[in-house]
Design a protein that fits this description.
Helix 5 runs antiparallel to helix 9 and helix 10 runs antiparallel to helix 11. Strands 3-2-1-4-5-6-7-8 form an 8-stranded mixed beta sheet, with helices on both faces. Helix content is 52%, strand content 13%. It contains 14 helices and 8 strands. The protein is α/β, with parallel strands linked by helices and 302 residues long. The longest helix has 29 residues.
Length: 302
Amino acid sequence: MKIAMIGLGKMGANMATRLLRGGHQVVAYDLNEAAIQAAETAGALGAHTLDEVAEKLPTPRVAWVMVPSGAPTEATINALADRFAPGDTIIDGGNSNYKDSVRRAAALKARGLHFVDVGTSGGVWGLAEGYSMMVGGDEQAVEGVRPILETLAPAAAKGWGRVGPAGAGHFVKMIHNGIEYGLMQAYAEGFEIMKAKKQFDLSLSQIAEIWRTGSVVRSWLLDLTANALAEDENLTDVKAWVPDSGEGRWTVFEAVDLNVAAPVITLALQRRLRSREEAPFADKLLAALRNQFGGHAVKKVS
């Protein structure tokens, strides 16, 4: 099957490579010329404009969009739609807000185009191990791209599935990422408590390795924790500054809208926000209040 990969960042490039290895033909496009050349070296057919993408794809065309969510995805999908014909399919494999995917699906359907939203997980390991994919879209549209999904997945019948209509794929991926926030935070807090227990001189990397086998808390995230601690148990060169992709926020907003309590995911998100503050004003105010009502000492900025 021939497919265009639009966006050749790390994940997009890896997905293109996995498709090529699976026997598919790939038309590769990116704003970065060097990324196109790298894809050509791997066996892809390079395209330097979206017009060229459309020309090099057989009908019905299939394009997989793998660019940053928001305006870049919106602009790319709209540009492809202007160049595609009824019966063609556009797949959004990025971290788009599911509400945008519902809207885009309706707009493309009105033009006779198919839209499939694929919540994709796997990171840099997906090339070797395959990607977990949560797929949303019309059943016919999803079936039309089944060979692509089966190749990208860990196995043809494992690690992927159509979870519902358009928007459902990105919705489920959003919740997936919210859960990920909570799991990561729990590991981080547990290991910090152990690090603080100086009495036992615990080896965090050793403990992570012990837990990887047989433990009820074993997971791929624990495997990655063990990898990081094996490299440097004190994480000397890592700054305690944790970004968020936005999907954790969307999960919390959705929980509020649906009147569903989600304290762990919410607190994990808040902890990420807190990590980016060098000197939180709230903590300064707490110190000042203790001084105001109790005369407690306040540490001054040197």
